[in-house]
C-alpha cells in the first residue's frame, strides 16, 4: 500500500477468518499500513486514502502424493537407442574420441551405457565421461557411477 504520490509501497498483512476476508480485515490492514508508514517515515496521513498496489496470496493445501510410475526393466543393452556415433572432445583422453550418441527417450529401464557416450534428451544432454557408467533406473532417472 502507499499514499498518493509515493513511489514506494509498504507491505502489510491482510487477515481472514477461515479464508473469508471481511471489512474488519481490510480496516485492520489499513491501520497496519498507517502504523508501518509512521514507523518507517516518522509520519502518517490517516485522513488520506491509501492505495493498494499489489495483492499476494499464499495458500497451503494438503494433497495426496502422486503415484510413482516405475518402469519395467528391459535389460542392459541400449543398442536399440543408438542414434549415431560422432567425435566428442574429452580432455581425459587427450582429445577427440569416436563416441556413441543415444536417443534418451528410446532408452529403457536397466539399459547401461558405458562412457564415453552422450545421451540426448528433449530438455537436456547427458555426457557420460570415460570411466563412467550410466544406467536408466526404474524411476526414469540416470544413475551415473565411476
Q: Could you give the topology of this structure?
A:
Elements: E1 2-3, H1 23-41, E2 50-51, E3 82-90, E4 95-103, E5 112-114, E6 117-120, E7 125-128, E8 133-136, E9 142-145
Parallel strand pairs: 4-6
Antiparallel strand pairs: 1-2, 3-4, 5-8, 6-7, 8-9
Characterise the protein shown here:
By secondary structure, the protein is an alpha+beta fold. The protein has 2 domains: 2-51, no CATH class; 79-145, no CATH class. 13% of the residues lie in helices and 28% in strands. It is built from 1 helix and 9 strands; from the N terminus they run βαββββββββ. The chain has one helix spanning 23-41, and strands spanning 2-3, 50-51, 82-90, 95-103, 112-114, 117-120, 125-128, 133-136, 142-145. The strands form 3 sheets. The protein has a 4-stranded mixed sheet with strand order 3-4-6-7, with no helix packed on it. A 3-stranded antiparallel sheet has the order 5-8-9, with no helix packed on it. A two-stranded antiparallel ribbon has the order 1-2. β6 (117-120) and β7 (125-128) form a beta hairpin. It is elongated and about 75 Å long.
Using brief descriptors, characterize the structure shown.
146 residues; alpha+beta; 2 domains; four-stranded mixed β-sheet; three-stranded antiparallel β-sheet; 1 helix; 9 strands; 28% strand
Measured on Cα atoms, how large is the radius of gyration?
Answer: 30 Å
Query: What does the overall shape look like?
Result: elongated
The side-by-side strand order for the widest beta sheet comes to: 3-4-6-7
Give the total of beta strands.
Answer: 9
**Average pLDDT, all residues:** 94
Number of domains: 2
Structural class: alpha+beta
Biggest sheet statistics: 4 strands, mixed
Percent of residues in helical segments?
A: 10-25%
Distance between the termini: 56 Å
Instruction: Please report which band the strand proportion falls in: under 5%, 5-15%, 15-25%, 25-35%, 35-45% or over 45%.
Output: 25-35%
Unreliable spans: none
Helix/strand order: EHEEEEEEEE
Q: How many DSSP H or I helices? A: 1
Amino acid at each position: 500500500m502507499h499514499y498518493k504520490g509515493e513511489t514506494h509501497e509498504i507491505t502489510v498483512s491482510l487477515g481472514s477468518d477461515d479464508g473469508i476476508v471481511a471489512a474488519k480485515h481490510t480496516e485492520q490492514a489499513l491501520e497496519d499500513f498507517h502504523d508501518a508508514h509512521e514507523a518507517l517515515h516518522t509520519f502518517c496521513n490517516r485522513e488520506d486514502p491509501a492505495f493498494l498496489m499489489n495483492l499476494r496470496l499464499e495458500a497451503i493445501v494438503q494433497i495426496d502424493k502422486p503415484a510413482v510410475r516405475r518402469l519395467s526393466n528391459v535389460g542392459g543393452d541400449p543398442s536399440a537407442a543408438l542414434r549415431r556415433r560422432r567425435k566428442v572432445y574429452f580432455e581425459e583422453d587427450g582429445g577427440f574420441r569416436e563416441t556413441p550418441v543415444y536417443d534418451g527417450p528410446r532408452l529403457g529401464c536397466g539399459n547401461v551405457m558405458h562412457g564415453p557416450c552422450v545421451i540426448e534428451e528433449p530438455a537436456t544432454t547427458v555426457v557420460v565421461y570415460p570411466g563412467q557408467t550410466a544406467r536408466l533406473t526404474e524411476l526414469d532417472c540416470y544413475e551415473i557411477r565411476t
